[in-house]
Amino acid sequence: MNIFIYNGTFEGFLTAIFDAYEMKIVPDKIIPSETEYSLFPDNYYNIQPDKEKSDRVWNGLKKKISENTCKMIYTVFLSESAMEKQLYDFICKIFDTPYNIESNMGDANILNLRNMERKVHKEAVRMIEFIRFQKMADNIFFASISPAYDVIPLLIKHFEARFTDQKWIIYDLKRDYGIFYNLKETVQMTIPNLRVSHNSGQVSDEAKDIDENLFQSLWQDYFDSINIKERKNPKLQRQFMPARYWKFMPEKNRLR
Amino acid sequence: MEIAEKVKILSASAKYDVSCSSSGSNRPNTKGGLGNAVYAGICHSFTDDGRCIALLKTLLTNNCIYDCAYCINRKSNDIKRAAFTVKEIVDLTINFYRRNYIEGLFLSSGVMRNPDFTMQQLAQVAKELRTIHRFNGYIHLKAIPGASEESIRNAGFYADRLSVNIEIPSEQNLQKLAPEKNFKGILQPMNYLKTNILENKEDRRKFHKTPMFVPAGQSTQLIIGATPDSDLQILSLASGLYSGQNLKRVYYSAYLHVNTLESRLPALPEPPKVRENRLYQADWLLRLYGFGLNEIIDETHPNLDISVDPKLGFALRNPQLFPIDVNKADYEMIVRVPGIGIRSAKLIVLSRKFGKLGFEQLKKMGVVLKRAKYFIRCNELSANNIKDINPFQIRKELMSTTVLKRHADELQLKLF
Fold first, then answer.
1. Per-residue model confidence as pLDDT tens digits over B273-300
2. Number of domain units in chain B
3. Contact A234 B50 (CB under 8 A)
4. Are strands B161-163 and B55-59 parallel, antiparallel or unpaired?
5. Final residue before a domain boundary, out of B181, B202, B224
6. Given CB atoms, is A231 within the 8 Å cutoff of chain B?
7. What domain range includes position B393?
8. Could you check whether the bond before residue B323 is cis, i.e. omega within 30 degrees of 0?
């Protein structure tokens, strides 16, 4: 088997595709470096990420398919669900077919990618819905998240457009990195020794703005009062807001 | 009174207004401003009853000079009364918004002094949010029937959506239950808003700097099951409001017997939620699927079939139209098949030009074959379709038993 190992970045992945074309080798698997691989006699190719090569692949794609489908490729990549080989097959198909095949959902490969895109997109939408910021003493608004897919890159545009006059951090506790908007731009960062409760996503009381707990409790009061008891429907509630998001939401997690 | 107490009283007083949507407006953020509105709307939480929370929905005050039989806040009720100051409500909105709890504010109120005064108070809150705090999030205000056109117009330049609730679907029943209200009074602000929204759209096309006027349009609410009005009456009213008043949404609210001593209203043991759900489904078909009212409901069957959804009901009443060939039929017909939604209908039309589609592919596209299989033909031969099986048989197989049981529970006490 031909196994391509790349560094886990999108740039690295696109470089792997470039190299596959250049070396005329069809990879059986394309895996990020942290994946453990077996000891069977396989051919391993270590891909060195290369901006120029990845740009050539990306620009080539942009010429062949719509912006929407380019975005789909990136979104599926963020799923971290070993979809690289399927993406590779799709990209080969795009380059090798003289006409445009991007909307052929009759093709199982393409439909699979579309369905995965939908899942990742949905996770990003749920972050946009359910992220809860805490105001900290230094006036930065901080939110903990732990999404199923690596969706942070899909959140930047929305929150940059919305909260332009406040500094904010969205931090992925699972992947231990976050984004910080400093009133000018959004930068990626990792905070060493971050002191955040993994059960509630809350920063310590000392780090909070003095009114933070008051507004959380007012929000809880509102959440309780707006509910109609006679219409109780927990199944519907979970359908729209699955329980795995609850721990970082003050209205559903009253541990504080 | 403490702010927490006010939040509890005034949001509980607002909870029977079911609308909480934040859609229809794409108000952009401004330089140095706070927030924006997203056209599709965003829900930020879901209450234990499964309803979306998109907005801070509250009354300015639950003091009211009116005495409507169905309303928890009517003046003859002995309940705790409270009122927010403008500053309190503005602070709450801004602080909730900055924490990503909400998309904005939905402000309603009991009628204080007179309708015009009340309308001015609501507009004042919106004005402060927009001008002093440069807030560009979503604002939904109630348009109060009886307020002057000037006050309503003023509110419309700050709000994204205005709504007037009709509540009772027929004039004579409304008169009985809400003596201070009538259809004419309710339709007046609606018509006024409609004309002004249209004019504003036209102006905005011509002059770039024209301020937005109610960009997300109007909505209303109808109470279901409080009066003997039939589904036909309700849906005719709704479809008239969509075409005549250009309403964006009509909300249906299953009647809840809040004023237990009120003898003019029925003592339903449970709100008629199944009926409410069927009405929403019918409403969807009217607005998004291109159905005509007479395809869904008519004089001979003035109420929707509780046991099957209205689209399935349509297909069963019209077996001559089916089965259709998904590889050939028009989009309009594909979307009429039970079990095929708008998304999968679009995928089918996009994909079939590359090759014929089979059942397995349809399934992966999200088609619910359990329902659709009776009404479609595709590349493969299907065993049993509506040509071979009697519609009554299909109905029996697809009937929702859980829904039927729930509906029976809702009706039970009513019969005794």
1. 899 999 999 999 999 999 999 999 988 8
2. 2
3. yes
4. unpaired
5. B224
6. yes
7. 310-399
8. yes
